[in-house]
């Protein structure tokens, strides 16, 4: 499955100022990890964001979101944001920062 290279580039640009970020191909797309823990990624035209179980409901109340479900079993604490909801750089930056912040609460891998 191809993924939106433009969206990945925008994420890469935003995260360039964040310490401890690495990039890895996964889920047929690309993931950005904070100290070894996935924070955000791109699959198809969508942004994957690791928000954590406690933040899922609030995240799903924001425009363009849905549960991340690749196998018929939604992943707890993960959401997808439609690429069409990410046209504004500030909106994308907030999602990236949310994922980066949550991943930063996890023990490094």
What features would you describe in this structure?
With 109 residues, the chain is an alpha+beta fold. It has a single domain, classed as Aspartate Aminotransferase, domain 1, CATH 3.90.1150.30. The chain has three helices and six strands. A six-stranded antiparallel beta sheet has the order 1-2-3-4-6-5. A hairpin with a 2-residue loop joins strand 3 and strand 4. It is globular, with a radius of gyration of 12 Å. The model has no long low-confidence stretch (mean pLDDT 94). InterPro entries: TfoX_N. This is TfoX/Sxy family protein.
Would you spell out the secondary-structure blueprint of this structure?
Layout: H1 5-15, E1 21-26, E2 29-34, E3 37-43, E4 46-50, H2 56-60, E5 65-67, E6 78-81, H3 89-103
Antiparallel strand pairs: 1-2, 2-3, 3-4, 4-6, 5-6
Helix pairs in contact: 1-3
